[in-house]
Design goal:
The structure holds 2 protein chains of 2 kinds. Chain A is α+β, with helices and mostly antiparallel strands. Chain A is built from 21 helices and 24 strands. In chain A, helix 3 packs parallel to helix 7 (about 130-150). Chain B is elongated, with a radius of gyration of 19 Å. The chains are: A alpha+beta, B alpha/beta.
Chain lengths: ~775, ~120
Amino acid sequence: MNELLARKAEPWSYAVGIAGRSFVFLAIALCIVAAVLMIARKDERAGKLAQRIFTFGSLSFVSAFVCLLVLFVTHQFQFKYVFEHSALDHELQYLVAAVWSGQEGSFLLWGLMASVVGVLAARGAGKYRRWFTVVYGLFLAGLAGILAYESPFQLLLIENIHVYPPDGRGLVPSLLNYWIVIHPPTIFLGFGTLTVLFAYAFAAVLHRDPVAWIPQVRPWAVFALAVLGVGLSMGGFWAYETLGWGGFWMWDPVENTSFVPWCAVVAFVHGMFVQQARKKWYLANVVFGALPFILFCYGTLLTRSGWLGDLSVHGFARMDAKALILLISLSAVSALAFFAFLVKNWNEMKSKEPDLAVSKSALLSREVFYGIGAWLLYAFAFVTALGMSYPLILRIIGDKPEIIEEGLYHSVLAWLFPPLMIAMAVAPFLTWRGLSFRELFSRITNSLAISIGVIGFILLWMKSPGFHAPGPDDTINLGPFGKSHAVVTWILFLTWLCLFVAVASFWRMMESLKRSRQTVGAMMAHFGIAIAVLGLVFSRGFEKKAEVIVHPSEGPTAFGYALETLEQTSQFSDRNNKIPIRAVSATDEIVATPSLYYFPGNDGEPTPMAWPSIVMRPLYDYYFAISEPIFDVTEWTPFVLSEDPIKQPDLKAHTDVVLMYTGYKVEGSVAEDGESMLTANMVAVMDEQTYELGPSLRVKVGAQPESIPARIGDRYWLSLGTMDPKTHAITVKLDYVQPAYPVVVYFKPLTMLVWLGIGIMALGGFLAAAGRRKERLATSHNEDAP
Amino acid sequence: MKAGAIVTVVLTVVGLCAVVFAFVKNSSPYVTVAQAKESDRPSVHLAGDIDKSTVSVGRGTVSFVITDEQGATAHVVFAGPPPANMGEATKVVAIGAMKGEVFEAHKLLLKCPSKYESEDSPTS
């Protein structure tokens, strides 16, 4: 302790900490002043001033973030948050990532992203600028208020004495992965952009104009959609590359917190088309614009408050009580104020909408299908939100909390998925005015035919020897509404739905190449999503698993490959240590490189950490998960003295060795000499070779008996466990000389499509966002179908 | 328009009831060791502290002793590789059912003394 106290930190580091704290308070003050000034503004000049103050308020967030970043990069462990999340041996990228690895820092990241996009969006807010700034300023002030209580700039105190430890605790090993560097900033950029949509929607209500905001907010909505989509996918990839997560998605509350708003933004983006083309849905779009943010706040509250407690798989730190109250008020006030003003200004805004009777839509029209799509998307969001809130609801009613498991999400959402996919495939072929069924059918025939044809090819491929198809008895339980279904039928049906959407989107994309860049972007995004979902469904549905012990004497095989481990690449203490596994079949050879290393755990004991290795092929992935080596071959097995091989226990089930217990030797006596050496004479036969062995046991007064094993060839150690003093019956055990690694190999077909699809989706999304921006800069025009 | 609105409302209400019914019927309860022994459900959540000294990795299985909030203990066996963050974990949620004296888990959810609260650490 004295050592810690003797160490003195550089004075400037304290100044940075104080500056960071001050910037948080400055952000509160400036954002409130900007909002108040905007509300009370008398003339254009006051408005300009308020705008400038808002910009400075946002810059304070950026400055606070920079201060924290400096503290992390220069290892200022005298700050509690730095001490708890960083360490000297972390590389630069992990020092940066450590900034957002805790509760405080992730709130600061949210504030940073929200303020940056806020300033950019406020510049183009035009006539909505006044109320946009008010709403945005108050939100940022609230967020800064949370940070004032949940401050990452607190000094490290032990029993009220300030200390400066030489090293920090560091990130937990499972987080030391490149995804922690890029996933949180991306997803929080998306979350931050949701505030722009909310502030716009709120401003549209307060300005009583539900018309002009649409072209202004549209690029932001498409941007939020693309960034959130990419962020969500990154989370999935992270999960896939982490051992034991069993795939890309598992419907955890934290995942759902980002999925629910994403669904809502999809509905909003489509609602805007209807408003532009048909002069309808004005009020619905105002609600659609506000809901993603409100839903995100709800999810954040649910996951950060600790209300879910032990019910989530995430370890949630308890929030500071006052910060929690602020977060609750911020979420509740945002939602309530929005809906209160919406109700108040409802009629006036409604009057801006043209008479509906004039433009009634046919059943097979885009408007109707967009409507169905929006309902289905909100149903998706609602089911998910209900699922994640379910434990809390039961707790409020006073029941014992219960959990909605992954499979239950699937079986319920399975009912919404097919209609949504069909709407997604058909809608792009419809016109706003509507088509007859015959016209529609002639437009989608090609896509239908092609998608069914591709299913035929997939079936052929599934019959080929390279594909490890499921057995005819494998079923998927669809839960309460349906019975069990054969895996092949159900998964192929879902696959066909995805293919139908993919082919239809691609078709429309090619058709619109010359006409409209935005449509190309939108159709490309649809195509990408369909491909990615196809990959998710197919690779999860047709996944196969093989569990083996990789050791020469086990002759392990998986999916027709013989497996062996090669020499590890480094020491077990090295984070980059890999245990290469070579898999050889008649026609193929794979070398997988899963990692395994040990780090000192909380109790100082070496604790294993493993990362899987994924061998990616165009048509399938092999996923190799390794765990810590085992040496035990057999349990302790009793032997009685006998020259007769028939009377000896048979170990053939486990090994290639036959053992016989033929005699014993006892040297010394514990009672007289205080020490005794017991030796069993054993004969081992392995690979037609005979070994004479003498595993022994040293028994000493006041000490644990010490076993001295004997080696059988280069394969096993034979240890003596006990020897009965009267009958001389013994127990022995076999261990491997070489470590044996338990390995699980998964065959996951078409996983590559997930990566490919996400890439295409992102490209399409950004293309569409760029297109929208251009369109907004020029005069807006309505696009119509084919 | 009127008819359309009615259809929408009816569909929404029916859908809502169906979802709630499905959730109520199939959600998996959190139980203590004593409750797990009595329960005849195929899948329950058993939460508790891992006794680190009892963790043993065998042939395709991981086993350990779990202590629930009432201090009762149970032997848990999970068929599969130990999750990556097994070593960091202090608390565990084992999903499965009691088979005799052993709790057979088909899924383990590990809780680490988390530093990055917004990221995930489950396993199946």
